[in-house]
Design a protein that fits this description.
By secondary structure, the protein is an alpha/beta fold. It has two domains: about 170 residues, Rossmann fold (3-Layer(aba) Sandwich); about 140 residues, Rossmann fold (3-Layer(aba) Sandwich), CATH 3.40.50.1400. The longest helix is centred in the first third of the chain and has 22 residues.
Amino acid sequence: MPDTKPTALILLNMGGPDSLEAVEPFLYNLFSDRELIQLPAGGLLQKPFARLISHFRAKKVVEKYRIIGGKSPLLEWTQKQATGIAGRLDNVQPYVMMRYWDPRAEAVLAEIKQAGIEKALVLSMYPHYTGATTGSSSNDFKRAAAKVYPELEYQLIEDWYDWPAYLDALATRVMEGLDSFHDLLRDEVQILFSAHALPQKFIDRGDPYRQHVETTAEEVMQRVGYYDWSIAYQSRSGPVKWMEPGTEEMIQQLAAAGHQCLLMVPISFVSDHIETLEEIDMGYRDLAADCGFQHFRRAPSLNDHSDFLDAMAALVRERSAL
């Protein structure tokens, strides 16, 4: 008889606080992860430092989440993506696993084990590989699987920055953003891809993140056409050397060159969350206006657009036995 048990499709993502009260413990979980952030004085003091930093940062971060509705929308979007991708595949059951907030790896794996599912496809929702995000989430899954469900057969898909159907979907979002400008302005638009920054030491040690981001942007712009474009890196904080150029500095440089129309494209994010809804839509919009830009838009996020879900379902089919 053929095996009728479904395969689990597990989407890995960072997670985010589901209430304002969850902001500080979420930040603590994040700052405690040495694969993401290596605080000084070694692993022994990581958690005490994490507790201190999360406590002092929480008040400011709480206000940012309050502005966008009191919680992160990342879980909701990732659940929609998981359901949409699984619905395009045969005999697949969707699950979502978050790194720094619920649902966590051990709980999800216990649920999969209880359901009697014996195989899983594990898909990172970070298109561009870095040990700080993809690597940390993958290792978190592997540790939890070894502890909770060592018999589970699984396959990991850890990057897809050059997957053609993903590039097509992202190019479509860019063109939708361009279409939001008046016809007479469209040829003047500067396109700024903004990816989440990493400490430069990750790149120096051989992390392929920058190369992956640059390849994605180049491939997208081959599809979009002749517009001027740049790449910058956002969300830099703390006293370490970060990837350059920073998004703030690039906005200022473009404005100083006399440009009036800016389209921002969040390139390392596949759904809306605090970095798009607050940092770009509010913070960078205000900065652009202060610098002299007259017209500012952000390309829509991929979220649950059907072409993106089609792309991810095709990716899973291509890289697995489905």
